[in-house]
């Protein structure tokens, strides 16, 4: 049975959690394949509101099992907090499995993340300070600690000793801070291994068995395509790959097993933190979008920057992720605007271009070229059928659809 991927088509915060929670009722497993607790997926259903950061969004469905794949970096303290919250609200958390290959966010990762961001000064990139970047650095530097290591007490101390000596040298000699305690971290390590043990599995083998057994898998992305380490607005990106092909790498299955990629985009554009944003509206329009859309970061609480829908960026996301179809969220936030703009191209050094340039200096210079559409000045909140939308709302959605597909 093939798998299906749901990914963000913008800079994240597109409403993936809502869509995944809705679709999860039709699958057997939901697999989170990348990122860490720097991502947040709010889920609202009959049981209430759930703020999830690591646990896959489909966990609220009684017959759905969740998997945290090998591509995720896991803060065990955050994961335990989420599982306790879910258990307290009647959700069976024994249905969650964690890859033994997933890397662990250690205390020194969080400390170094914040020290490095502080040292960047005016060049700060807007990291969430959750230790995700340093954990991925250790992964690629082949000095990371994996979930499976937490269960192996025989090598526990020797592995940590070598790594902590190096990290404490950075902390004390570069940043002039106090070193971290070996015993404190070992204590955490032992505690993590004890309570995590029932959840840990070789999840890539589990996923292969699921696919062979004709069961259905939904692959859940974190952040959005435009934050992809390779294909996003570098260096203002996340520390992992967020595009659809990463769903295969981060879950342990072949690319051919992914049958359909659904991209999620808002009817306008937002981003958290620093970085280029061609269609940003740093004015009354942006403020109105933010207020009506309740645009605050799930993890950081930071106010999101808001702007008009940027079709150039979304087309880039569609191309690099192989998106087959799109779900457009928060259309009702545009209710009441007399005129609505869609960015359909850029001007760069006096020339019209239809792509997002890779060079940061060019990303900062591009000027949006807009298509101006009439708004609908009607309330669309709560509308469930296409035929009930105002005519101009239909025109807006159809314009976006025809631009891409």
Description of the molecule:
Helices cover 35% and strands 20% of the residues. The relative contact order is 0.15. A hairpin with a 2-residue loop joins strand 3 (41-45) and strand 4 (48-52). The chain is built from 13 helices and 18 strands. The protein has 3 domains: 3-99 and 200-263, Adenylosuccinate Synthetase, Chain A, domain 1 (3-Layer(aba) Sandwich), CATH 3.40.440.10; 103-196, Adenylosuccinate Synthetase, subunit A, domain 2, CATH 1.10.300; 267-404, Adenylosuccinate Synthetase, Chain A, domain 3 (Alpha-Beta Complex). The radius of gyration is 22 Å and the shape is globular. It has an 8-stranded parallel β-sheet, sandwiched between helices. Strands 14, 16, 17 and 18 form a 4-stranded mixed β-sheet that branches. Strands 3-4 form a two-stranded antiparallel sheet. The protein is α/β, with parallel strands linked by helices and 405 residues long. The two termini are 26 Å apart. It has helices spanning 16-23, 76-88, 107-120, 132-140, 147-150, 153-174, 182-196, 203-212, 245-249, 284-293, 311-321, 360-365, 391-404, and strands spanning 3-8, 29-32, 41-45, 48-52, 65-68, 73-74, 96-99, 103-104, 200-201, 217-220, 258-266, 269-271, 305-307, 309-310, 325-329, 339-348, 351-353, 367-374. The mean pLDDT is 93. Helix 3 crosses helix 4, helix 3 runs parallel beside helix 6 and helix 6 (153-174) crosses helix 7 (182-196).
